[in-house]
Each structure stands twice: as structure tokens, then as C-alpha cells.
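Email to the structure team, subject: ATP-binding cassette domain-containing protein model.

Hi all, the expression group asked for a predicted structure before they design truncation constructs. Nothing fancy, just the C-alpha cells so they can compare against earlier work. One-line instruction: predict ATP-binding cassette domain-containing protein, return C-alpha cells.
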Amino acid sequence: MIEVSQLSVVAGADKRKIIDQVHLRFEQGEMIGVVGPSGSGKSTLLRCLALRTPWTTGRYTFEGKEVIKSGGRGSSEYRSKFAYLEQSPELNLQKTALKNVLIGQAGQTSWIRRLTGSIRSDDYMGAMDELEKFGLLDKAHVQAGKLSGGERQRVAICRALVHGAKLIAADEPVIGLDKYATEKVLTTLKELCTNDKSTVVAVLPLELAEQYCTRIWGINEGRLQWDIKGRRLTQEEKQLI
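Reply from the structure team: attached below.
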């Protein structure tokens, strides 16, 4: 169980509310689509869930353990468990897909290994297992710069999982991708929820959220307008965003 209460984010000298008193309660294994107009606070919400943006106020619990008590950045021990995937994943384009996955793993363990480039065999096998799971085994030794946009997104997902991510916050993960790549990325994310009981919260166009997600959050002006589970939206609900 993941619970968020009284989440607010205030920014600027004018104390503008980017996120305003959001309350959420959801289970591990859900795939949640976040929809809303530009500037509504969708990306900030994702960054808050992934502990990339400090909370002005709010309480955050994960599997019964307190991550944030009364605002702030949250406990550092959860940073690797809550992954944030940007629209264009930050990969080293000169390194292979495998090395991009392993860079993250080494960075989580030992700065000496990070500097020397030494990797344990179990790290290597774990990275290869994730790449194979998502149809990228044949791309393991291909430079990231030569991968398609959809393949780079899946490499970023593999890297997050090797870190030990239990929640993936994906900010428009299929923007700019063709229909085939979009289907591949979203199917990959949905399989994580179904097979591994990971939780995915993704900013998506409404039609894709309705197609792939088990739940949809509508955000407008920093507020949660509705939380819909197991069905499509009504016309009245769509008008709220």
C-alpha cells in the first residue's frame, strides 16, 4: 500500500501552489495514468512521488513505512526504490545498453567500483536478465546512441529495475515514439505491474491511459480532480481537465 496525504508544493516568491493538497492511496502492482492539461502539475506530482522534488507539506508512506513525515525530500534509502523516467532518458550514448544499465548499479554500491569500472558477475547477470526480459538481449552490446527511442526507454526501465525500483514514475514515456514503439514501451510497463507487482505512474495521453492503465488520475491546477479505476471516463469527467 502507498499513501499520500496533504501533498502540496509551493514555489516562487509569490508562493504559487503547483500541487495543492493532494491525497492518494493505491496498491503495489497498479498501472496508473496521469492526465491533464499542460502546466497542471502532472510532472511535479511524478517527481514528488519519485522523491526528486521536495514536498512543502505532506506525508508519504510506502508498505507501512514512513518516507516523508511533514514535507521535505524524504528518506534517501528510498531513492533507488522510486525511479523517475524522463521524457528522453538520460543515457550515455557512447556506451552500450548493457553498460548504461550497469553504470547505475555500480553507482548504487561502491564509488571505487564506479571509478575503476569493475562489475561483479551477479550485477552483470542481473542486467542481462532484465535486458532479455524486455526483448533487448540482442541490443546489449550496441551503443545507446544507435538505439531507437523506444529501445532507449526500455533500457532506462531496465536500469531502474536493476537499481531495485518498486515504483516507476514515467513522465510522458512515449512522446515522439511511433505506434509500434509506443505499444512496446507501454506493454513493457504493464507487464512489470502484472508480473512483478511493481507500480507504474505515467503521464500519458488520455486515450493511451484508458487503453493500458488500471487507474486514471485527472490533474488540473495542481489538484486531483478525480481518481477513476476500472473504467473509461465520462464526458463530464473529461471536462474537468
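The longest helix spans residues 179-196. Strands lie at 2-11, 16-26, 31-35, 57-62, 65-68, 82-85, 167-171, 199-203, 215-220, 223-229. Ping us if the truncation boundaries need rechecking.
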